[in-house]
Structure formats: C-alpha cells, structure tokens
Amino acid sequence: MAYSFRLSMGALAVAAIALGPVKAAATVPFLPHEALYELSLLKTRGSSPINSARGRMVYQFSGNPCEGYTSESRQVSELEVGEGKVTLSDLRMTAWEDATGKSYRFKSDSRMNETESSPTDGVAERNGDHITVKLKQPVVKTFTLDGTTVFPNQQVQRIVEAAREGKTLLELTFYDGSDDGEKVYNTLTVIGQPIPPDKPIASPDPATESEQMKGLTRWPVTVSYYDHDAKKTEGAQTPVYTMSFELYENGVSRSLVLDYNDFVIAGALSKLEIKDSKVTKSCTH
Fold it and tell me: Rounded to two decimals, what is the model's pTM?
C-alpha cells in the first residue's frame, strides 16, 4: 500500500490564513502572508507499518476583498515504511476564490516517488441553489454540487464566526478541488472553550511570538473530514482524516495535529510572515 499524507486546501486555509475583524461573511478581510510548517510523525496506531515521517509545507496567501484571494502551496513529504521502503510525495496546489464565495478556481499537481504527475484543473461557480464545477483535468467533465457546499475561504470564515458566537459544533459540506477534482467532504468542526491569552505556552512559535497575536483569545478546534460519497453503514462513519489546532480570534492557527487514523502527523509552524494588504478605495465588498 502506498502511504502519503496531505492537507486539503481547506485544511491549509484553516492552518495558515490570518483574518481581520469578522463582520459579515462576505466582508471578512484576509491578510496576505507566507507560512512554513515542519511536519513530523507524532504516533502510529495498530499495525501501521510506518516507522518515520517528515515533511515541509509552504503556504502563500495574497489578495483582497475586491480582487479575490489566491493561495499557493507546496508540500513535500517522506514516509518510511517497513523494510526501509520510502514513499516521497510532492503536492502543489494553487487556488483563487472571490470574497463572496461565488467563484473558485483551482489547479494541482501531485507526484509519488518516480511516477508521472497527476494534474487537476477546474473552476466552480455558485449559481443559486447549486454549484457548477467544470473540470479540464484529469478529465473534461461538468457536474453540480449542492449550493450549501463551501469553498476553503468560506470554511475558515464560518469557523471563526461560530467560535466568536460561542458555538461548539459546526457541520459543513466542503469542496476544494483536491484529489481528482471530484472529491466532496462532509465536515464536522468541534470548538472548545476559549483559551485565555495569558495561558502559558509549552512550545512557542512565530504565532505566539508575534506582536499582532499577543492578547488574543484562541480556541481548541478539531475538524473531521468525511467522504461525502461513502455508503452509509450502521455505526459511526470513520473520517478520512482529522485536523486539530488552536485557532486565534484573528484566524491564525497553531499547534497542528493531522490524524490519518493509522498514523498521526504534527505540524509545527516555523515561519509566519504577514504581508501588507492592498485594498483599493473603490472596493465595495
């Protein structure tokens, strides 16, 4: 079995996007930034053959409410399984989403060891009670999604708003164009009690050391991703993966834990560079 670990664009957004003050969902101002995460094996379960894991993920985010937001990521990871076998994966993804969540464009390219790349290219447009997705790669195809489905930036907005409102549970149907461009997830977000700004931090990182972050409240958050198309059986459905992190009230997250059921990956934030946001005066969003 070929093992790999990755983050969907939604997970990347939750992990690294910095948000300004939240008002209405359509007017949340995202802040351009660059984040670097160091990935390592935290633990394994059961009969998992994985002996070690390491990787690095670079995530860049730019744009404004008028022009929309662009995210670019590259994740290179290495998993060592039994008998010294190593699986090397390289995933690159670029996406653009307008500020209102009506339009979403995505491109991705993934490689596993020496195999050929697996590109994905498409666009999703929200039209009333449905979303039309047009794929160019890996195959030319058009299909529709339920209009309640959210894109990556919308997912982040909803989580931040729910946390501020004191909600503990949030269910969303999620699409980011990952995998073959047709994957849809049902997500369940669990939001814990707010963590006081003065609570001691065991492992400081660029987020905790940033002047912009000091004095801000944060929440423990866990997002579970379930296969939307999986056949329902008796009992609880097992998530494809689960991501836990601490979410600040301005949208920045730290202390990532990525649970893939038979192994768990820790994501340590080693760099967080907030860049200037250029918003034109004529912007009306």
Answer: 0.85
Phi, psi of 213 (to 5 degrees): -100, -20
261's tokens: 């059921």
Can you give the residue ranges of every domain in the chain? Answer: 9-98+148-274
Three-class SS state of 153: helix
Radius of gyration of the chain (CA): 18
CA–CA gap between residue 235 and residue 232 (Å, rounded): 9
Instruction: Please say whether the beta carbons of 266 and 256 come within 8 A.
Output: yes
Which range, of 17-26, 42-51, 149-158, 172-181, averages the lowest pLDDT? Answer: 17-26
Q: What is the mean pLDDT of residues 192-196?
A: 90
d(C-alpha 48, C-alpha 70), whole Å: 37
Is 70 exceeded by the pLDDT of residue 285? no
* HSE-up (13 A, CA, CB side) for residue 106: 30
| Nearest-10 crossing angle of helices 9-16, 152-164 | 50
